[in-house]
Amino acid sequence: MINMVRVVYTGGEHGYVAASEVLKGIAEVFHVEADPDILAKQLQKSDAFLDASMKVKITPKMFEESPKLKIISCATTGSDHIDKNSAENYKVDVRTLREDPELLMNITPAAELSWALLMACARKLKAAFTHVNHGRWIREEFPGIMLKGKRLGLIGCGRIGGWMARYAQAFGMEVIGYDPYIKSFPSTIKPVALEELFDSSDFISVHVHLSDDTYDLASEKLLSRCKSGVVIINTSRGQIINEAALLNGLHSGQIAAAGLDVLNGEPEIDNHPLVNYARFNDNLLITPHCGGYSPDSLSQVCARAAEKIKYKLLDLNIE
Questions:
Q1: Among 41, 83, 142, 312, which residue has the least CB neighbours within 10 Å?
Q2: What's the predicted TM-score (pTM) here?
Q3: Which one of 3.40.30.10, 3.40.50.720, 2.40.160.100, 3.40.50.850 gives the CATH number of domain 5-104+295-316?
C-alpha cells in the first residue's frame, strides 16, 4: 500500500465527494477554486489533478512548476484546455471520459440541455418570459415554430447526437446527420453531406469534439447557405462555429435564433460580441457551459475519473 498522496480537484461539490470516496485511504483530495493562480500553486505540490471544471488552462509553465504531477484526469470528454505537448514532455498522463463510451451512453444532461435550448428558441421563451414580467399578455407576439415535420440537422451523430435524434423522432421531426467517423448510422438519422445539411435543415445542432478537423467546421461559407429562419444550437465548443458569421446571421435575420452553451474564449466572456448581442436581443440564448453539469452525472463521472487516478498511483507505488 502506498502512503497518502495529494490530489487537487476543481469542480462541483458532488464530484468532490464522489472522488474523495474512491480515493479514500490512498490520497487526500483538496477541493480548490478554479482560479489560475490558486490552481497553479496547488499543482506544484500535488501528484494528480482531477478536473471537473475546465475553467483553467493548464499551461506549459504549470507543468514545469509541478514536478510531482503524474496524471490529469478530466471528468469531461474535452481536454483542449490542457497543453498536450507539455503533458507529453513532462510525462503526465491526460485521461478523459472519451475512454468510457459505455458510461457516457447513459449520461444525458448535455443532450437534454441541447434539446431545451432548441425548444426555447423555437417557442421564443426568453422574449415571452420578459413580456409577461413586464405585465403584458399578447400571445400573437410569440408565434412558435411547430417542430413536427421540420428537419433537424445533426453535426456529429455519436452519443449526444443519438439522443437528440431520439428526442426529435418523438416530436415527429425528420433527422439528418453528418459524421465522417460513423460507419453505421442509427436508423433514426439519415446520413447526408455537410453542404446538404446546411442547405436543407430547419434546425442545426452541433455535437462534435474540438479538433483540427472540426475547428471552424460551421464556417462562414456554410452558414451563408442556411435556409432563412434556421435555428442553430451549439453545446460542443465555441470554436467549432464561426462566431462572427453566426452573429452576422442573427443581425440579418437569416438565422432566426441560436442557443449556445459554449463560447470561444470562455470563461472570459464579459465583452464577448455574442454576449453583448444577447444582452439586448431575445433571439440568442447563452448558458455557461453547464450542459453536462448535474449532481447525478457529476458524481458518476468524477468517480470514474478518480478511479483512473487511483490506478495510476497504485501502479507507480508513490511513496
A1: 142
A2: 0.86
A3: 3.40.50.720
* pLDDT of the chain, 319 residues: tens digit per residue: 445 799 999 999 999 999 999 999 999 999 999 999 999 999 999 999 999 998 899 999 999 999 999 999 999 988 989 999 999 999 999 999 999 999 999 899 999 999 999 999 999 999 999 999 999 999 999 999 999 999 999 999 999 999 999 999 999 999 999 999 998 898 999 999 999 999 999 999 999 999 999 999 999 999 999 999 999 999 999 999 999 999 999 999 999 999 999 999 998 999 999 999 999 999 999 999 999 889 999 999 999 999 999 999 988 875 4
Q: What are the residue numbers of the active site?
A: 237, 266, 289
**Residue 250 in contact with residue 224, Cβ under 8 Å?**
no
CATH superfamily of 108-286: NAD(P)-binding Rossmann-like Domain (3.40.50.720)
**Long-range CB contacts for residues 174-181, cutoff 8 Å, separation at least 24:** 174/149, 174/150, 175/151, 176/151, 176/152, 176/200, 176/201, 177/153, 178/153, 178/154, 179/154, 179/155, 179/208
